[in-house]
Amino acid sequence: MAQLLKDAQIIDNHWTRVDTDSDSLPAGDIVVHHATWQQRHAELCDHQGAVGVWFDGNEEIENFVDTIINVPLIAINFPKFVDGRGFSVARLLRERYGYTGELRAIGHFLRDQLFLLQRCGFNAFQFDHDIDLEQAAKSLTDFTDSYQVAVDQPQPLFKRR
Amino acid sequence: MYKYDQYDQQIVDERVAQYRDQTQRFLAGDISEEEFLPLRLQNGLYVQRLAPMLRIAVPYGLLSSRQLRKLAHISRQYDKGYVHFTTRQNIQLNWPQLEEVPDILAELASVEMHAIQTSGNCIRNTTTDQYAGVAVDEIEDPRPWCEIIRQWSTVHPEFAFLPRKFKIALCGSEQDRAAFLLHDIGIQLVTNDQGEAGFQVFVGGGLGRTPVIASLIRKFLPKQHLLTYLDAILRVYNRYGNRDNKYKARIKILIKAWTAEVFAERVEAEWAHLKDGPATLTEHEINRVKAFFTLPNYQSIDSDKANRKLQQTAAENKAFSRWLDRNTQLQKQTGYRSVSLSLKPAGVAPGDVTDRQLEIIADLADRFSFGELRSTHNQNIVLTDVVVTDLYELWSTAKDAGLATPNIGTINDMICCPGGDYCSLANAKSIPVAEAIQRKFDDLDYVYDLGDLELNISGCMNACGHHHIGHIGILGVDKKGEEWYQIQIGGSASKNAALAKVLGPSLSRDAVTDSIEKLLDVYVENRQHEETFLATYQRIGIDKFKERVYGATA
């Protein structure tokens, strides 16, 4: 079973991501695209196992955020590691819409982005490439403190120095 | 100037450690070229035509003599003994080794400097007026606000992977000396009817392939809201800016697509959520930062007497007198002047300074300028707060060091990118063009008679040499593998910013200087009274200039 980082720990991934074009739903805990979540809502409510939702960082989440805010897992997909939209969307989910479940980065991102991703509210990181998770976890603490307000530190440095 | 506390120092030190680790992993093959690219760029490192280039941040152009000495040391130890001042007030090393960059960054950190976000698709160094704090027409010192923006933008968690690079400039005076309308965000310090300080906010300016003058999106932003409003602009841009085509990715393209009105509405809607939030500036913080930019300990000077003495010295020495006219500026503090050290003697790439010159400048700053100096977007150095009776002594030392060419604001004070000699993006060389112009126009009386004239040279359409906003702009173009030059005229970086118009078909390098001479002839023949080149152009239009260069049939 593939592993990932969650809350700075290495854990086994027990969620299965469901492709957008897949008709059948696998057993167990699944992560479905937000469009699937809207379209097959009744069916998904009857699913034996937990259901999470994934989408790309370019989504206009304002249009559907109400329907996903209580799911146990939201995964934001990074199509390319230089696509920074997921950083903004993550903050919106946490800071504006009060999402408290697992917020997972999926797709192509780098260990060198972990510190910033975590600041924006991600607490789980599922890499799309082979990586030494123990080494990668070190990047979560690249900096001891930061100037800006973010999810991990709601007060700016200028109010704390 | 701003002094780091333990938090500032820790952030910069940890950034060095982070980048050292990244460099080691890259060299070990654990990070691919593609993945290392934005990491090294955001630490200032480009890979250029001949060698890597490291761009060092000079926040809002302010440097101390101690920092300059460190830069001299770095240029000797890790490079070829010279540095280059850029059009965004930063400093570039042209020959560092990739493996040694972490060591260079550690040396910089030891004097409160860094190269963070000097490149890459992130928020870059905030620029401002080189006469901040001393300008006669100043509304408020812009530097505390620039420092507040520096801290907010440094390692910003949300905006490190923007669609494209993002540049902010701030203007605190009546006259614009920061070209702020040609930045992604241009901020003008203003006072409202109630006497409260705040900002006018312009967005979407920029040069490059599609030059645009910024649009006003907020007439008055109370000062405490600066950072939340910037967060709102950046968030809208980060989410909706074009990421499919790098040539369509700057914020100006988004604003063009949406219109400035719609963009302003989207920003206001986002800001409504952030306004008055925890990032709202406090009086305590504003005052904390302002306290670092207090005035130096001015002596009370009998300025009438001092000026009489100065005029007498000038009357006796023509070379000094010329320099005094062209290279010094009045300050709001009587008895003091600001001095521009020209980094553009003929035969030297504009903006280049040797290690020894850096040390001499540091000494001059210590002797005459309270130990501080400023880099300018025109690629010169300014020493402020010089007692007028010290000017002669300063000039003598500067002259011996090759730093007193009396050409500030003249045709020979050109802005010039590194061009094809160094840059891998360039279509054509720019430094030899600058040198040919300086050699051609070496008669100072003629040059002074031409008066204020901005000549800007870029080696490609990325416009690092700001050719669109030169009174005369020269753009290097590639024509079937050969280097050609397009001439543009009528640009201006002032508050009435204007983009230059293309004069006609591009020319060979040999024809450039002669054509410039023809343009100047048209100006001299047509000018009225004290009119500048730009004013004459604005009055008579482009046709006469065009005819002279290309003949009547062109």
How would you characterize the overall build of this protein?
Chain A has 161 residues and is of the alpha/beta class. Chain A has a single domain, classed as Rossmann fold (3-Layer(aba) Sandwich), CATH 3.40.50. Helix content of chain A is 23%, strand content 22%. Chain A contains six helices and eight strands, in the order ββββααβαβαβαβα. Chain A has an eight-stranded mixed sheet with strand order 2-1-8-7-6-5-4-3. In chain A, helix 3 links the parallel strand 5 and strand 6. Chain A starts with a strand and ends in a 25-residue tail after the last helix. In chain A, 40% of the residues are buried. In chain B, strands 15, 16, 17, 18, 19 and 20 form a six-stranded mixed sheet that branches. In chain B, strands 1-2-5-4-12 form a five-stranded antiparallel sheet. A five-stranded antiparallel sheet of chain B has the order 3-13-14-11-10. In chain B, helix 6 crosses helix 8. Chain B has 554 residues and is an alpha+beta fold. Chain B has four domains: 104 residues, Sulfite Reductase Hemoprotein, domain 2, CATH 3.90.480; 149 residues, Sulfite Reductase Hemoprotein, domain 1 (2-Layer Sandwich); 98 residues, Sulfite Reductase Hemoprotein, domain 2 (Alpha-Beta Complex), CATH 3.90.480.20; 136 residues, 2-Layer Sandwich (Sulfite Reductase Hemoprotein, domain 1). Chain B is built from 18 helices and 20 strands. In chain B, strand 7 and strand 8 form a beta hairpin. The longest helix of chain B has 22 residues. At the A-B interface, helix 4 of A face helix 1, helix 2, helix 6 and helix 9 of B.
List the helices and strands and how they pair.
The complex is a heterodimer of chains A (161) and B (554).
Chain A: E1 3-6, E2 9-12, E3 15-17, E4 29-33, H1 34-39, H2 41-45, E5 51-56, H3 65-68, E6 73-78, H4 85-96, E7 102-107, H5 114-119, E8 124-125, H6 133-136
Parallel strand pairs in A: 3-4, 4-5, 5-6, 6-7, 7-8
Antiparallel strand pairs in A: 1-2, 1-8
Chain B: H1 6-27, H2 33-41, E1 45-47, E2 52-56, E3 62-64, H3 65-78, E4 82-85, E5 91-93, H4 101-109, H5 143-153, E6 168-171, E7 185-191, E8 197-203, E9 215-222, H6 226-240, H7 251-258, H8 260-274, H9 283-290, H10 303-316, H11 318-327, E10 328-330, E11 336-341, E12 352-354, H12 355-368, E13 372-375, E14 381-387, H13 391-400, E15 415-416, H14 431-440, H15 444-450, E16 455-458, E17 472-479, E18 482-489, E19 501-502, E20 507-508, H16 509-526, H17 533-540, H18 543-550
Parallel strand pairs in B: 6-7, 15-16, 16-17
Antiparallel strand pairs in B: 1-2, 2-5, 3-13, 4-5, 4-12, 7-8, 8-9, 10-11, 11-14, 13-14, 17-18, 18-19, 18-20
